[in-house]
Amino acid sequence: MKSVSTKSQSDKKDNPIKIVSRKHPKTHLNAAIIGGGKACHDLIRLLDKDRLLKLNMKIMGICDLNTEAPGFRYAKSLKLPTTTNLEDLLGLEGLNLVIELTGSAETRAEILLKKPSDVSLIDYRSARLLWDLVEIEAEKIDLESQHGQYQESSNKHIQVILDSLPYRIMVFNMDKVIETVNQTFVKESNLTYKDIRGKYCYEARYGLDRPCKETKGFCFLDDQLEEIKTKGFISTYKEYTDENGDSRFDVIIVAPIFDDQGEIVQLLELSRDITERLTLQQEVQKSKTFFENVIRSTVDGIVVIDTKGNVLIFNEGMEQLTGFSANEIMEKGHLSNFYNIDLAKENMKKMRSHEHGPFGKLNPTSMNITTKDGGEVPITLSASIMTINGEETGSIGIFTDMREVLKMRKDLEEAHLQLIESERIATVGKMGAGVAHEINNPLSGILIYAELLKESLKSNTQHLSDVQEIIDQTLRCKKIVSELLEFSRQSVGKTTSFSAKNLINKSLSLLINQALFHDITVNKDIKYDLPQITGDIGQLQQVLNNLFINAADAMEGKGVLTIKAEYSQHDSLFTIRVSDNGPGIPEKLRDDVFDIFFTTKPVGKGTGLGLNISQNIIKLHGGDLAFECPPEGGTTFIIKLPLEITEQSVGEPVFIGMGE
Fold it and tell me: What confidence score (pLDDT) does residue 183 get?
């Protein structure tokens, strides 16, 4: 005998499983085991006397070079024949099966070379399958014996096992003729063993009258034989039409059966109908997709977390609210990234009590969440605890953005306050207009007599200055009266068309020669070929004059006054900018600039009506008056006027702009 190792090995990678078999006229199995390791030990223990008897099997001997191997020693303890000589074992009379457990390709090759031709060989991999089959069969035989049933012959052993499986099992030859099938196959095909054996696989399996390839179908034998040989098996899904014309789905596993030369001689197909399971999966997937679409399309933020605060669902609404992406939160983040964890614990306590609404629910609660950039967003949170079989598995929260709602509330409150203020000021305006009319005539009389008195006191310089003071203060009163009358006006006067350049130049010509403007440089930037402005040129001049004088006062008579005019075709708006390089408006006063009677000028120099009147005039023209204070200093007032105005009329005189 060649010095070939017959020591047992395990988990050794080799060629695909090969089963070398031959039909025997006798059904009694006289087996020899080569390899006396642990696998041998376990197999001998499994094949006790009762099971050997039921399997019609006898262990004739064990061979291993290592006499201390556990299986070898265990066999000796059972008085089973043992040897270290392979040829002695293979020469046993009546031997018809060799079970090779060494895992050695060299040993297997030597066995194939030296064994008698009528002796079958099961290698160590197939032995594992045999082991499982024997164990299952033994259990089945034990169970059936309790019910008075017994399988008579060991040559039906594999068939019995196959019949007990829920899979349809079919073994067919390379010419597609069926060798055998199991009971499940027979039952589900509504045929008998006699009807099936000898038929083509496509006839019994799919009810076809010609091969699957000829019906544009798929054939494992024709299309995937090489892949089956290489991989050892393939697993796939297949759709077909049953006799009722309904689509059915099978999961199919196909494995090869080899001959002594390692060639595929048969294919074993295991299949199971999964139509109901697949249909259920499809329905679940549809429901899941629908659920995901609902969550994804919801404007509100939706978050689902587990009991540890790990985020399981983070929808698009929540992404927009917080600035976090779903991946950031679900893969690396936590609830605490956007939700104060102490507040979260407090809300969970509320949901677990009956004192704050239904148990397990959180009624809408106002709070703030944190955005990715550290900002805070006001939201309303509604939440619920999720349970499965009475155990908490997590919670779901719906986060409603309250920014627009709060802004609307604020706007309504401001509008309400403005309405109250406008009603108060309108009352004052009406009264002021009446008073102005009443005192205007007496003031005119005072002014006339003061002028006459001044003429008569030309030679008396001591009293002449006093009279001049009377005249100056009277003129100041008339100016205030005039502004009050202007303030009470509610409509645009006579409208004409004129150029922006003409409007600006006329306004400047009235002021440029005054002492206040002597040390002021005026820069004009008026775009060429601007369209004509439609409006009351007198009122608009009044606005520009007011802005020019305010700019000169801000610069204390020294600086640069810049005037720019342009027109936007896109929104049909004129824009006139009046800028100075003065100190700018203090930030704390900017909200009060357009308020009535607000002024920063000394007493006697400003009335606080100019900018308010200017703003109302611009609004009557359908435009807007605003200002900005750049960080580097100075102030720019911005007038926006439409190409054409639509004057709004109101019932009775109120302050300009207050009837809106």
Answer: 84
